[in-house]
């Protein structure tokens, strides 16, 4: 249950982050705002590690598979696209589309066990759940 509460909190933070990033992008530009967000986040992460809050070791980085570094590339795309979509569609519609994209992709990752995860088969009930979410999104987004 704690893991789900933490996930819900991350959703709250994502919606706020997208809104803040959009506001910054309106002032500095989309790509420029994306850069600033990553620099500020990197400084914070470094500070937390230097303060002893890290649980791992940067010395282990060479052991990581090359594709695990693509998260940084994806992060630039995510921040850029979220800010762009919120500016055009609004926070709720953009966030709804983001969540649907996440859930659909997560179901594929789970089903096929991509990136070293244990496969969790796609079931009829998962499909029904995704369809219900899509229906709820349509209701939320219809005017």
General description of the model:
There is one protein chain. The chain has 5 helices and no strands. The protein has helices spanning 2-28, 30-50, 70-89, 91-112, 124-141. α1 packs across α3 (70-89). The longest helix is centred in the N-terminal third of the chain and has 27 residues, at 2-28. The protein is globular, with a radius of gyration of 18 Å.
Question: Helical content, roughly?
Answer: over 70%
Taking all Cα atoms into account, the compactness measure Rg is: 18 Å
State the order of secondary-structure elements, H for helix, E for strand: HHHHH
Please tell me what the overall shape is. globular
| Total beta strands | 0
Q: Could you outline the blueprint of secondary structure elements for this entry?
A:
Elements: H1 2-28, H2 30-50, H3 70-89, H4 91-112, H5 124-141
Helix pairs in contact: 1-2, 1-3, 2-3, 3-4, 4-5
What key attributes describe this structure?
single chain, 143 residues, mainly alpha, 0% strand, globular
Describe this structure in a few short sentences.
The protein has 143 residues and is mainly α. 76% of the residues lie in helices and 0% in strands.
């Amino acid at each position: 249950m704690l893991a789900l509460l933490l996930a819900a909190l991350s959703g709250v933070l994502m919606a706020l982050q997208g809104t803040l990033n959009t506001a910054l992008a309106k002032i500095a530009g989309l790509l420029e705002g994306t850069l600033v967000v990553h620099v500020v986040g990197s400084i914070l992460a470094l500070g937390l590690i230097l303060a002893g809050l890290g649980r791992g070791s940067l010395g282990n980085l060479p052991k990581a598979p090359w594709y695990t570094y693509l998260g940084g590339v994806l992060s630039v795309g995510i921040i850029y696209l979220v800010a762009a979509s919120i500016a055009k569609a609004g926070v709720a519609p953009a966030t709804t589309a983001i969540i649907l994209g996440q859930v659909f992709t997560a179901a594929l990752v789970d089903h096929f066990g991509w990136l070293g995860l244990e496969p969790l088969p796609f079931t009829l009930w998962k499909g029904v759940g995704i369809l219900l979410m899509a229906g709820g999104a349509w209701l939320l987004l219809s005017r």
